[in-house]
Fold Ankyrin.
Amino acid sequence: MKRLIPFLFLACLAASSFAENTSHDQPIHDAAREGSGDDVRRLLKADPKQRDVRTALGSTPLHLAATNPDTSAMQALIAAGADVNARDNDGATPLHMAAYSSRPKNTQLMLEAGADPQAKTDNGRDPGSMARKVKADETAGVISLWVLKGCKAGKPC
């Protein structure tokens, strides 16, 4: 048993080291998720291609910014040309993420930028159903009104 303990310790250490080395998160992902528009703009100025870099789950920085209460990070990515209809590994768009995170302002901004309110995930969920699933009534309302009014991308509604 005493010989087994060092082996288990080394196995755990190797596993945690492997997990760290396989992470696809970049500083742009952290800035999008928790930072401000200034943080995102600074990183994009250094390397504009970062706007499309994906995590291990296929999320773009815009997917992560859609969940950030500070909308300036999301606005910076949209202004830099980030794809508002990009799909992650589950088929979710940034609009799905905003809806599921109960972010009505982010949802409105995504729609105005051209996000597809009818887009379906691989499991068949549209952004409105994602919002209703988590009882994000205001967010679901934003999406429903957008569709009912026949609003168009690129214009406030």
Summary: The chain has one domain: 24-149.
